[in-house]
Input
Amino acid sequence: MVIVNHHEYQQALTRTIGAMGTAAFVRQLAALVATQVSSDCTLVLNYRSGGPAVYLFDNLQHRRDLLFQQYLNGIYADDPFYRALGLGLSEGVYSLRTLVAELGMGPDYMAGFYQATGWQEELGLVVSLHKGQWLTLFLGRMAALPFSANEQTRLRHLLPVLGALCRQHWPLGCEVMALSPPDPAPPEQNRMRSQVDMALASFGLARLTRREQQVAVLLIQGRDNETIAQQLGIGVGTVKNHRKHLYGKLHIDSQAALFARFLNHLITCNQSREPKAGS
Output
């Protein structure tokens, strides 16, 4: 591997390994990539077959609202990377412009939403995860300065390291729920994720067994029976039995009803933590 600054790379790699299994992992992964190629913007997402784009990390300084208000709410489906992955794009390093040309896409995406972001050049790193999931790390430049062949080669040499780290960190793929955006995200966004985590931890505790509660939380996060069985180390049939029992105890009959019940729990949990008037 050709390394720009060996000392910085070693330090970044050590920090990334040390962050495995923690919420800081993706941020350290982005810092590791930054030791090889400079960029103005970094965005890390999780794509999954037939599913939504899940936010993992960004350091955007310009038009960040587009990411949270438009892209993650549906525009991602028009992203050339998302489309190409659905068509079988393999793990690798790709230029957005090259990908658009290979897909034969029209100019609408580039001239519309993408132009509003201010990005002039974009490079995407695609890492294969568990069963139809991919980590996609995007590097953007605000000036029309293409990523050189040498820069792209350095990233391709780094890709096996990134893949090994990511698959060790997410052996069963990423969670369906987005990570909390880092600063400069408003404190309310980080507080919201904390409230959701607390609501998940307390959901159904009064009625469900420990294992039923674990299954319920994973169902709320969109996991299927097979994935739940793998994560909990039990059989698929056992998962189905737990699912049947927890539905009965909660007086519901579907995963949609389970999610609705959780939303009610989340709302009441938040209300119970609000300070009373005059306190």
